[in-house]
C-alpha cells in the first residue's frame, strides 16, 4: 500500500510527461498559419486547462465509486454493457501502444537536443529504448515505488524551479533573453497568406486545441491504480488526482507562457517551414522542443540547469512508457479472463502470461516508431482519439451509475450527494464528448483514422475470440454417453535407432501392459533398416519390430496411416503411440532435436482414437536445466507489479 | 533429364544475369578517378573475360569428374577434407543470400528505370519480390524447364539483337547517338585531382577489375546441376558450360564496348559525384544502369525495344534469384545429412525441410536489402569474395583429385589426359587464387569483411552443431543396463473442467490399467474447485480427485512437484501423466488453446521417471482439418526441384 507521497510520483510520470510535448503541439499547429497565430497559444492553453479541470473532477468521482482498479473498462462494463466496455478496452489497448511510441520518441528527441551525436539516430535510439524497457519488464524487475519517486520528484521540482526562475527573471529581474529560434522566419501555408482569419483559422485553432489535449493523457492511470493506495483508498486517490491535475495544469500553462515570453518557435517540418533571419535556407538546423528552448534561455549562464531539465524530462518520458508496459498486460489479462483475449494472456500462475503482453506491446510500438520515423508530431495525431473515447464512455458509464443508484436511494442527504456527483460526471461527459468530436473532426485525416481502424480491428478480434471460446465450450460440454471405456489398448513404440531413449520407451510401454505391443520403424534407407534389424535380433528384444516402408522417404505419413489402420480394424480400441524423446537443456539445442517428433505428435493428435505418449530421456544438459528450473524463483503474478505499487 | 537446349536456359539465368550489373561496377569504380579513367574499362573487361575463360575451362573438368551434383563442396570434402569443404559450404551459403539480394536489388533498379512510379521505392519493391519468390517456393510451385527457357531465350536474343543492332549502327550505319548521361560532369575524388596515376590509380584499376569479376558469379551453378543433364551427363554439362561462358563473355564485352561508344556515365553516388553540363546540381536525376542507357540510345526511335531489354533483364534477374531459392535448401539438406546443420533442414520425406531453408534465405536477403538500401553497388562489395573462395578451394581440390588418380594410373594415354586436366585446374587455381587475393585486398574495407565475418560465423556454427550431434550420439549409445522394467505405473489424469476431453482421458487412462489411477486438479479458485468436486461426485467417477492447492495461482509447478514426489516415493516406478487436449483445426485457433498444456508437457519432459500422455479430443474444426491433411498431396522431396530440372 502506498502513502500519497509515493503514490503521486508512481502515477505522475504518465500525465506529467505529456508537458514535454503537448505545448509544442499547440505551437507547431498554429505555426502553419505563421507566427502571428502564436498569440492564440495561451488562450488555447487555458481551454486545455479547463478540460483538464473537468476531467480531474470527473475522475475524482470514478476513483471513489470504483476502487477495484478496473478503471473505465469496469465502469463501462458494469453500467453500459459488453460492447461499450470492449470499445473502451480497444481504445485503451491502442493508447498503451501509442503511450510507448510517443513517450519514447519524445525522449529520443530530448536526448538529441542534449547530446549532439544522438541527432539523426532518433529511430534507432527509440527502438533500442523500447527493447530495453521490454527486456526489463520481461525479466520482471520489480521497480519499487521509491525508484520511481526520485526521478519524478527531480522532474517536478526542476521544472517548477525553472518556471519560477524564468518568470522571476521576466517579471522582477532583468528580463529573459530571446530563444535561438526567435529570429527565424516561419513560412505560413498558402491558405493563410492573407492573414489568420475565416473558417480555415477557426479550424486550425480547433486542431491546435485538439493537439494540446495531449496534456490530458495519463490522467486515467490513477483510476486503474486505486487498489494500490492506502485506506481510505478512494479518498486518497482522489486527493492525489487533484494534486496531479494541479501540477500538470501549472506546468503546461507556464511552459506556454514562457515560450511566448522568449518568442520560441517550433514548426512541424523545420526544413521546409523555417528560413533564416534573412530568408536563407537553414543547414543542419536541429529544432529543440519548447522545454529545451526555455531551459536554454532560462539557464543561459548555467549549463547544468539545461542538462538537468532535458535529461529529467527524458527520464520521466521513459517512466511514462514503462507504465504502459505495466498496464497493457494487466488489461490483456482482464480481457483474457473474460474470454476476449487468448487464454495465454490470462495471468494464471506465472509471468509468462505477462510476457506475451509485453512482447506484443513492444512489437507494435516499434512498428509505429519506425513507420512514423519517431516523429512525435505525427504520432500525436493518432494518440488523443483513444484517450477521449475512453474518457467519454467512462463518464457516460458514471452518469448511468449514479442514475441507477438514485433509483433505490431514499436518504435525501445521500441523494443530494449523488446528484452532485452525477452533475459533475455529466459535465465531464459533455466536455470530453465535445473534445472527442473536435479531435475526430480536426485529426481524422491527419492520422486519427489509423487509431480508429486499429480500435475497430481490436474490437472485432476480441468479439471473434469470445465467440470462438463460447462455441468451443458448447462443443465440449459433457453428456452421459461420454464414459465408454475402450475395449483394448494397442501400443506401438516408434524406433529410429536402438539407443537409450528407445530402450526406455520400450520398457515403459511394456510396464503399461497393453493388450498388444509392437515396435515400429519407418524405413527410408535399406541399409539403415538392415542394421537396425540386426541390432534388434542381437538384443533379443521381447516384441516384434514392424518395418513400414516409405518409398518417398516420408517419416510421418506412414506412421499416421498405420495407426489409423489399426484403429479402423478395432474402432472401440485405442492406439497408444510411444515416442522416445531425448531432452536437451539449452534453448538452442532444442532447434537441433525432436523436430520430427514434434511434428509427428502434432499430426497424431488429429487422428481419432490415438493417444500419444512422450517418453523423455534427459541428457546431461537436460538434467542441468531441470535443476535450474527447480531452483528458479517462480514469480507469482502479484509479485511483479512493482510499478503500480502492488508488491 | 534435360536436353542441352533446355538445360542451357535453366542454368543460364544466374551467370548471364550478372551482365545486368557487372559492367556498371567497372565503370562506376573507375568514375571515382573522373571520366578519363573510363578508357581503362575495355582493358579491364578483357582481363575479366580471360578469368572467365580460365574458370569455364576448369569447371569443364569438374563437371566431368564429379557428376553427382555436389559441386565444389563435394570436390573439397573428397579431396581436401572436412574443413576446406565446410569453408566452401560457408562461402556458398553466404553467396546464395547475396545472389538473392544483389539480383533482386538490380531487378528493382531496372524496374525503376522503366517505370517512373517505382523510383524511390526500390527497397519496398525488392523486399516484396523476395517475399513473392519465397512464397512461390514455399508453395512448391514446380516450375518446368520450359517456363525458364522462354524468358531466358528472350533475354539472350534481345540482348544479342541490341548488341548487333547497336554495333551495326556504329560501324556500318549512321552512327549511334550519345547517352543522356554523356554530357554530365563527373567529380573525381580529391586524390585523383592531379590525374589518374601512381599507386592510387593502380589500386583503383584492381578494384574495378575485382568488381567486374561479378560477371563470373553463377558459373558454378552447372557443377551443382550435372545430374539434371541427359547422358553423357558430364560431357553435356561441359558443352553447356562452354556455350554459357561464351555468351556471358560476349554480352559483357559488348556492353562495355557500347557504353564506351555512347559515352555513358555511371557513378556510385549520383547526388554527390555528378553535376550538370554547366556544373549545376542535378535535381531528381535518376541514374539508369548501362544496359538501360544503351537500350535507350540503340532503340532511340523504338520504345518497345527499350522496354523489352529492361523488362527481360529484370525478369532474368528474378530467375537468377530463384535459382538461389532452389540451391540454398539443397545445400542445407546436404549439410544437415552430414550433421553440420540442424536435422530439421535434412530433406526427409516432405517439403518442410526445404521450407526452413527458404525462410532463412528470404530473411537474410531482406535483411541485406534493407541494410544496404537495395543499392547494388554496395551489395556487390560483399558478393564476390565468397564466389572466389569457393572457386579457389574447388580448383585446389581438383588438382589434388588428379594427383591422387595419377598415383595409381599406369596407362600412359590416360595419364597424359589426366595431366592435361591437372594443368588446366592448376591454371584455374592460380587465376582464381590471384583474383581472390585482389578481391580481398581491394574490397575488404568496402564490405567484403562482412562476408568474411558471416562465413566465419557460418563455419563456427556448423562445426559447433556437428560437435553437439557427436556428443549426443555418444551419450545416447545404449548399453546392457538400459533394459530395466519399471516396477509399477502410477497414472494421474489432469482435470481442469469436467468436459468431453477430460472424460475421454479418464477412460483411456482406465483402459491402460495402471497400478494406481487418480485424477488431479490444481485449485486456483475455491469456487471453481468446489463446483468441480460437486460435478465429480454427481458423475460417480470411479477414481479419486486429488486437489492440489496453488496459493500463487500457478498451474504448472504444483503438477510437476506432485509428479516428482510420487516418483521419489517409488524410484523404480514410472509416473504417467495424462493430459486431455482438444484439437482445433485452424492455425489461429491454436493460439487460443492448449498453451498451458503445451508448457506443462515441456516442463514434465524434464522430470525423470515421468511419461506424458496426450489424449486428444478432436473438435469439429479439428476433424475437418484432419480430412484436409489426409487429402493433401504430400510432395516428396524429389518432386519439388523443378528449376534445376529434376522433377
Automatic annotation (TrEMBL), chains A, B:
Membrane topology, as annotated: Multi-pass membrane protein
Keyword Zinc included in the entry's annotation: no
GO cellular component, one term: membrane
TM ranges: 30-57, 86-111, 123-141, 153-176, 196-219, 240-262, 306-331, 352-374, 380-402, 423-441, 447-465
GO molecular function, one term: transmembrane transporter activity
Main location: membrane
Superkingdom of this protein's organism: Bacteria
Keyword Heme found: no
Keywords noted in UniProt: Membrane, Transmembrane, Transmembrane helix
Alphabetized Gene3D superfamilies for the sequence: Amino acid/polyamine transporter I (1.20.1740.10)
InterPro entries xrefs: AA/rel_permease1 (IPR002293), APC_K+_Transporter (IPR053153)
Cellular localization per UniProt: Membrane
One Pfam family in the UniProt entry: AA_permease_2
Name listed for the protein in its UniProt record: Amino acid transporter
Source species: Nocardioides panzhihuensis
Amino acid at each position: 500500500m502506498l502513502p500519497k507521497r509515493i503514490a503521486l510520483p508512481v502515477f505522475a510520470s504518465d500525465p506529467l510527461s505529456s508537458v514535454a510535448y503537448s505545448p509544442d503541439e499547440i505551437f507547431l499547429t498554429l505555426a502553419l498559419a505563421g507566427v502571428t497565430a502564436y498569440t492564440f497559444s495561451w488562450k488555447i492553453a487555458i481551454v486545455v486547462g479547463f478540460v483538464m479541470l473537468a476531467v480531474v473532477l470527473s475522475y475524482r468521482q470514478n476513483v471513489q465509486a470504483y476502487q477495484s482498479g478496473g478503471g473505465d473498462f469496469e465502469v463501462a462494463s458494469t453500467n453500459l454493457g459488453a460492447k461499450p466496455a470492449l470499445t473502451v478496452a480497444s481504445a485503451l489497448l491502442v493508447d498503451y501502444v501509442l503511450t510507448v511510441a510517443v513517450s519514447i520518441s519524445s525522449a529520443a528527441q530530448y536526448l538529441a537536443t542534449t547530446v549532439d551525436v544522438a541527432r539523426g539516430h532518433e529511430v534507432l535510439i527509440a527502438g533500442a529504448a523500447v527493447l530495453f524497457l521490454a527486456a526489463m519488464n520481461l525479466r520482471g524487475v520489480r521497480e519499487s515505488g521509491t525508484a520511481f519517486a526520485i526521478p519524478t520528484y527531480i522532474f517536478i521540482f526542476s521544472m517548477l524551479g525553472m518556471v519560477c526562475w524564468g518568470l522571476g527573471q521576466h517579471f522582477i529581474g532583468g528580463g529573459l533573453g530571446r530563444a535561438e529560434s526567435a529570429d527565424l522566419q516561419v513560412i505560413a501555408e498558402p491558405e493563410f497568406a492573407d492573414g489568420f482569419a475565416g473558417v480555415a483559422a477557426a479550424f486550425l485553432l480547433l486542431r491546435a486545441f485538439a493537439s494540446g489535449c495531449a496534456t490530458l493523457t495519463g490522467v486515467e492511470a490513477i483510476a486503474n491504480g486505486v487498489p494500490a493506495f492506502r485506506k481510505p483508498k478512494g479518498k486518497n486517490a482522489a486527493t492525489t488526482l487533484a494534486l496531479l491535475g494541479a501540477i500538470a495544469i501549472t506546468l503546461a500553462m507556464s511552459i506556454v507562457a514562457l515560450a511566448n515570453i522568449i518568442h520560441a518557435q517550433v514548426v512541424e517540418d523545420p526544413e521546409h517551414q523555417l528560413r533564416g533571419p534573412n530568408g536563407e535556407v537553414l543547414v543542419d538546423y536541429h529544432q529543440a522542443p519548447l522545454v529545451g528552448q526555455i531551459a536554454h534561455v532560462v539557464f543561459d549562464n548555467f549549463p547544468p540547469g539545461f542538462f538537468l531539465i532535458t535529461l529529467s524530462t527524458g527520464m520521466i518520458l521513459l517512466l511514462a512508457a514503462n507504465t504502459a508496459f505495466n498496464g497493457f498486460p494487466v488489461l490483456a489479462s482482464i480481457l483474457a479472463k473474460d474470454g476476449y483475449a487468448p487464454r495465454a494472456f490470462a495471468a494464471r500462475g506465472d509471468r509468462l502470461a505477462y510476457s506475451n503482453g509485453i512482447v506484443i506491446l513492444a512489437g507494435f510500438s516499434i512498428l509505429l516508431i519506425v513507420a512514423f520515423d519517431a516523429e512525435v508530431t505525427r504520432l500525436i495525431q493518432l494518440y488523443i482519439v483513444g484517450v477521449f473515447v475512453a474518457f467519454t464512455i467512462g463518464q457516460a458509464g458514471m452518469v448511468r451509475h449514479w442514475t441507477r443508484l438514485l433509483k433505490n436511494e431514499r436518504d435525501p442527504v445521500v441523494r443530494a450527494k449523488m446528484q452532485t456527483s452525477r452533475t459533475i460526471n455529466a459535465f465531464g461527459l459533455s466536455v470530453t464528448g465535445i473534445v472527442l468530436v473536435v479531435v475526430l473532426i480536426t485529426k481524422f485525416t491527419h492520422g486519427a483514422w489509423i487509431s480508429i481502424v486499429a480500435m475497430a480491428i481490436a474490437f472485432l478480434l476480441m468479439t471473434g475470440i469470445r465467440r470462438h471460446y463460447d462455441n468451443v465450450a458448447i462443443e465440449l460440454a459433457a453428456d452421459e454417453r461420454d464414459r465408454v471405456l475402450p475395449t483394448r489398448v494397442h501400443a506401438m513404440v516408434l524406433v529410429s535407432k536402438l539407443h537409450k531413449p528407445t530402450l526406455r520407451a520400450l520398457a515403459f510401454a511394456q510396464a503399461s501392459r497393453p493388450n498388444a505391443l509392437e515396435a515400429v520403424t519407418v524405413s527410408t534407407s535399406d541399409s539403415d533398416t538392415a542394421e537396425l534389424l540386426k541390432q534388434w535380433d542381437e538384443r533379443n528384444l521381447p516384441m516384434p519390430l514392424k518395418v513400414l516402408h516409405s518409398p518417398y522417404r516420408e517419416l510421418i505419413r506412414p506412421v499416421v496411416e498405420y495407426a489409423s489402420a489399426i484403429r479402423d480394424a478395432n474402432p472401440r480400441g485405442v492406439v497408444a503411440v510411444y515416442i522416445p524423446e531425448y531432452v536437451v537443456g539449452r534453448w538452442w539445442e532444442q532447434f537441433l532435436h525432436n523436430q520430427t517428433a514434434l511434428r509427428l505428435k502434432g499430426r497424431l493428435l488429429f487422428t481419432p482414437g490415438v493417444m500419444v505418449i512422450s517418453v523423455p530421456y534427459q541428457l546431461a544438459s537436460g538434467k542441468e536445466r531441470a535443476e535450474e528450473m527447480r531452483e528458479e524463483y517462480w514469480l507469482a503474478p502479484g509479485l511483479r507489479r512493482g510499478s503500480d505499487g502492488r508488491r
